[in-house]
Each structure stands twice: as structure tokens, then as C-alpha cells.
Fold each of these.
Amino acid sequence: HRSQSVDELFSLDTLLDTEEKEIRDTVRKLGNERIRPHLADWFEEGTVPARELAKELGALGLLGMHLEGYGCAGTSATAYGLACLELEAMDSGIRSLVSVQGSLAMFALWKYGSEEQKQQWLPGMAEGSLIGCFGLTEADFGSNPGGMRTRAKKDGTDWVLNGSKMWITNGPIADVAIVWAQTDDKVRGFVVPTDTPGFSANTVKKKLSLRASITGELVLEDVRLPAEAMLPEARGLSGPLGCLTEARFGIIFGAMGAARDCIESAVEYSKTREVFDKPLGAYQLTQAKLANMALELGKGQLLALHLGRLKDKGELRGEQVSAGKLNNVREAIKIARECRTILGANGITLEYPVLRHANNLESVLTYEGTSEVHQLVIGQALTGSSAFR
Ligand code: FAD
């Protein structure tokens, strides 16, 4: 019997148009040829050549790809999701690079920025010659960013920023940081060129997850910015939360990419590994595991596509994004761990992608809203009662 992929099992291709399939195939090719061969080394070394990668990803139109104008590709949201799926099939760190650049930093400028801010930053960020980061989380305020201590005070017409941000993807290498700070008039966003005096960044070391990604702390000590550095159209937490909804949308697809890569690896392994004189994949226990995982991967991709189509119609709601993120990341991490069992001892090494994906997905489960926060969002939608505090 010929063995088929989960995509074939669910005939997922019939749900995509030609352009979407082309984008998917282009990103998959880039991954196989240029990125996949290096992933184990980057993960082991705990770094990634983000600057060079950003230029390659930018050349393919993947940075800010669903935004219109300013050098961005302007694709559908579904096409952007499919690109995220292929990127995360490589490594969650590569998808994070694209999510933070496009959906967090560029989206903040695109949605809330002045015309001058957009002209100054977006074209360079779209081509990958400028790297952006997004500073919302602080060491003591993650799920509850409203408690943030970073403050922006007026001094004449200038703003002076003090505080620190933690866990900021690409913080140590960024050219520009979107920093959210308390002001006398709610939380506001600031466009901070990282060569501004008083701005510095430290790299977070000893991570066991998302190692092929650069994570840092931003420190702001009397960072003086002109009045025009504030994002004029974002006032209050709805600004940064709007950006997070964008990035979460990409994760709904992305997590399924990591899961697919694990299942492909486990299926391949099960066909060649012999135990007790027979291929592992010919045993019922192995097939039961593979069948159950295939169902979750297929259902998760169907959910992602459904939410993508809603987003393209402008009808996607926040609690639906929470449902997609919670389900798909939770199932992806279960799949990655189950695949690891199929690979036995080999599964714990970087020769195979499964434990790398499982470890990465620990971060994905926590960032962009933890699983518990998404349960609370869905619980609130179902009951009408907020249980956040
Ligand atoms: P906490 O908020 O302290 O949560 C701890 C636990 O408490 C969790 O289980 C949580 O679900 C639970 N909890 C919280 N509130 C409630 C409640 N009301 N009821 C029940 N349980 C609750 N942030 C950025 O701003 N920019 C970035 O680029 C960025 N990149 C990141 C990259 C990585 C690798 C990681 C790991 C994180 C990144 N983050 C970034 C931060 C991320 O968004 C936060 O870690 C996340 O919001 C959770 O915050 P916390 O870690 O402070 O956990």
C-alpha cells in the first residue's frame, strides 16, 4: 500500500486556491533548501543568524506579508497563515522571527502609526534590512500587562521613557523597538530607535525552548524621544492587544506545521525501524498513535483554514482566535511528545526534529496569551462572566 500524508487523508489541497498553494510551496522549498539543514546546529548553539534570514524572508515577501502598501506583499490572511505553518514546520523560532517582525512590530506601525512613521520604517522592515521588536511584557507583568511599570513622562514636547521589558524576541538585535508604556493618558506605544541614548538590551541565556531565536531584556534609562515618536492611533491596552491577536492568528496555523513535521518524522521512522523482527509501523499500537495524531492534525488544520477564511471576510472575533490558539498549540505539543515516544532514544536527539519541536512548543503555549488565559477568554464568551481576577 502507498502511504499518504495527513494533508492527503483530509484532501486539504481542495480547500486552497492556486496562489495559496504557490506561497505554501515556495516557503516549504526555502525551508528545505536554506533553513532545515542548519536548524539542529542553531538550536544547539542557542542562536540564529536573524539578520541574514530576515533578508531572505523579506525577499520572498514574508515580512508583513498580509499588510497593504509600504513595500508589503498584501496577501490574504489565509495565505499568511499557510506561510506561518510552513515556517513553523521548520522551527517555532523561525516562525517567531516572522511573527514578531510582521504581526507585532510592523502591524503596530501600520495600524497605529503616523504616515511619517510608516514611511520611515515599514519599507525597510518589509525587505528585512531593518529588524523590529515588540516590548510589552515585563518581568513582573506578563498575562496582566496593564500592571506595567515602564513609564513615559512628558518633558516639554519630548517624552522620557524609564523601565524595562522582558522576554522580548529579537530585542538584542533590533533596529527599532515598539515599546508600550504608561502615561498620564493610558498606555501608549512608542517607536524607539535602538541607538537612542539610554536604550540597551541583554540577551536571555540558558533557554531550553525556542533556542533558534534571540530573546532579550530591554532597559530604558531616561530614553528621550521627540513628540512624534508616539504611535498616535493607539490609546490604552487595546493597542498592544490588537497586535497580539494578529500574531496569535499566525500561531493557529504555525503550531500545526510543527505537529506535521513531527508526524512526518515519526511515520518515516516507523517504516524503517524494526522491532521484534517487524517494522514498528506495522504494529497496531504504533498505528493507533499515528491515527489519533493524524485526526488532531487534520482537524486543527481545518480549524485554522476556517478561521483564516473568517479573517479574510473581516469577521474573525478575538475569542475565536483564542479557541484556535489554545486548541492547536495544545494538540501540537501532545503530538510532538507522542512522536518522540515512537522514535525511542533517537527521539531525544537533534538528529530528529521531534523533541526540538516539543521544547519549542512550551514557549508557544505560554507566549501570545497562555493556555489558561485563552481558557478564561473562552469561558467568558460562554458564560458572560469574567474570571480573570
Ligand atoms: P504569568 O503571567 O506570570 O503566568 C504564570 C502562570 O499563571 C501561567 O500558567 C498563567 O496562565 C497563569 N495565570 C496568569 N493569570 C491568570 C489568571 N487570571 N487566572 C489563572 N491563571 C493565571 N513578550 C513580549 O512583549 N514581546 C515578545 O517578543 C515576547 N517574546 C517571548 C518569547 C519567548 C520565548 C517567551 C517565553 C515569552 C515571550 N514574551 C514576549 C512574553 C510572553 O508573552 C509572556 O511570557 C506571557 O504573556 C506570560 O507571562 P508570564 O511569563 O509573566 O507568566
Amino acid sequence: MSTTITVIPGDGIGPDIIDATLKILDKAGCNFTYEYADAGLSALEKTGELLPQATLDAIARNPATLKGPLTTPVGEGFTSINVSLRKHFNLYANLRPVKSFKGTQARYEDIDIITIRENTEGMYSGLGQVVSDDGQEAQAVSQITRQGAERIVRFAYELARREGRKKVTAVHKANILKSTSGLFLKVAREIAAEYPDIQSEEMIVDAVCMKLVMNPEQFDVIVTTNLFGDILSDLCAGLVGGLGLAPGANIGDQSAIFEAVHGSAPDIAGKNLANPTSVILGAIQMLEYLGMQDHAKRILAAVTDVIASGDRTTRDLGGTGGTTEFTQAIIERL
Ligand code: NAI
Ligand code: MG
């Protein structure tokens, strides 16, 4: 039986790298049926809305969504579509794995870190945003709930067990942010005690930044609140060679959206220059989520091989290929 997934090609380089990814999924024998939906600038042009109801329905209907990057028009009062999607579907867990690939010019070789970022609370709760009438003072509310902290920390430990990972590092700033980060840390300690088989560690966020740069191999699973997770996961992407190799999954209890961490790259759109790897890695996360571990492994092996061999990769990876040559090379390996 064929599983239906929702596909949002998105804006800019989105349609090209999504198309490349679907070709790879098909070649690997995933046998998906695709239900296409629009969001972002392309949806605005077609329907007058950035996030049409039909798209929300399609995401809700199917077990997983693969999404290209979306352009949110700047300065026209639009809220970020990605933030809207996270809120609408309560996608509370943002999983951002980074892994070293041979054949890139990254600084480190043995990195395999996954940042699990709480995706709905913290400094991004959207609560209490005030700017004084004279524009001289601004405030926003950071919100941590026991329920929100518990479910994300538990998610991290369950993932560690499932993936055979050894250690979970809870990242906080409880020494200064005593109420919010304090509650997060308290809950993290309680949950850690339930998982004696996994090594638990806690670390203050600024120290984590330093250690990630000096000795990133010591990290395995990082679990943290929204703002810290946003920043640390980009730092981690930089350790392995940047945006072209960084996928992200947004997971809730009912829905899941898989994507690249990067944006729609309007500067290279339509030029056959985009590196499709981040979206392909997002699709691999999707396969793992859907229980298709064998397909995930085969595609990852093919991508790893092509990047290691070097010549047909895209320019950001040091190669001379375009999106289509790179994709074709992966398809040939499969
Ligand atoms: P960007 O990530 O689109 O581009 C930053 C730089 O990285 C550019 O030089 C671009 O050419 C390069 N780049 C990005 N992806 C690449 C790839 N796959 N292969 C090769 N080079 C790549 O960030 P920027 O320019 O700040 O944002 C452009 C648009 O994307 C904005 O409208 C922004 O709102 C949107 N955006 C959407 C995201 C999403 O839907 N998840 C995430 C981030 C930004
Ligand atoms: Mg970010």
C-alpha cells in the first residue's frame, strides 16, 4: 500500500530541491503518493493567502509533510509561516541533526550531534509583547511550562534510546534565568532519573557554545529551550559545513513537517546551483519517522558516497556540479 505524504514545493530554490528529493525517494522504491500543496509567496500569488486552508487540511490529513523553504514577505505585516505552522499543529519538537560528511571542507570530522529544540514556548511564546508608546522600552514574556519541558526532555531521551545514542545534555541558563530556565532544568533532572541507561549531563548555554567550537565530538543529544536551540543548532550546522547539510524536523503528536534549515535562497534560485542535500536529509528524517529505516539507510549511504567522491557535488560543497548533476549522481548510486 502506498503512503500519501503532503509535499509543499515552496519558493525560490524550493521547487528544484524538492523535485530532486522526490526523484530520489522514487528511485529508492519508497512508493509514496504525493499530495501537493502551496504555501509562502507562491501561494500568495495563486490564492491571495500565504497559508491557505487547503494546505492546512492537506498537512492534517497525511502522516507527514515534506516542505521546501518558504519566503515570508518582509515588512508587510505577515507573521512567519513557519512559526504559524508550528503553532497551528503544535509541532513542539524541532529536531536538527548534524553529521560530518567526508569530502567537505568542514573543520571537524567526527561530529554526530542532534539538537532537540522546544519549538513552542520560551522566548518565542509570543506572549506579552509590548513596546511603550514613546518607543523607549520593549518587553516580551518567556514562558516555560512543566508540561512543555517534560514532553521535550522525554522526547530527547526516547530518541536517544531508539537511535542507540549515549548521552543527553540539557542546556540551560538557570543560574541567571532562575524562574524559566530553572523550571526547565528541574524537570530535566527529574526525567533524567527515569533513564539510567542514558548518560545525563547539564550545561550552561554559554559554556556549550565554547565547547562546541573547541571539542564538538563530546556532544551527542542536546535538549534545550526554544531560543537556545535556535542558535545552537545553527552553530552545529556550521561545524559540519553549513546550511547545505542541515535538515530539520518539526514533530507534534498528530503531525510532522520535514524540511531544510535554510531559506529559499533567492540569490541562486533558477540557476541550477542549489544543493539539495538538506532537503534530502529532511526526507531521510521523514523516512525514519515513518518507520522506513531501510530506505533511509540506503539513501543516506548514496548521498554520503556522492559527497565523499566530490566531483559532481554542488559548488557550496566544493564541487563543480549543479542541482541536477548532483541529484543524478545520487540516483545512479541507488
Ligand atoms: P537563505 O538560507 O535562503 O540563504 C542564505 C545564503 O545561503 C544565500 O547565499 C544562499 O544562496 C545560500 N544557500 C541557502 N540554501 C542553499 C542551498 N541549498 N544550496 C546552496 N546555497 C544555499 O537565507 P536568507 O537569504 O536569509 O532568506 C531568504 C528567504 O528564505 C527569506 O524570505 C526568508 O524568510 C526565507 N527563509 C525560510 C526558511 C524556511 O522556510 N524554513 C528558513 C530561513 C529563511
Ligand atoms: Mg533559526
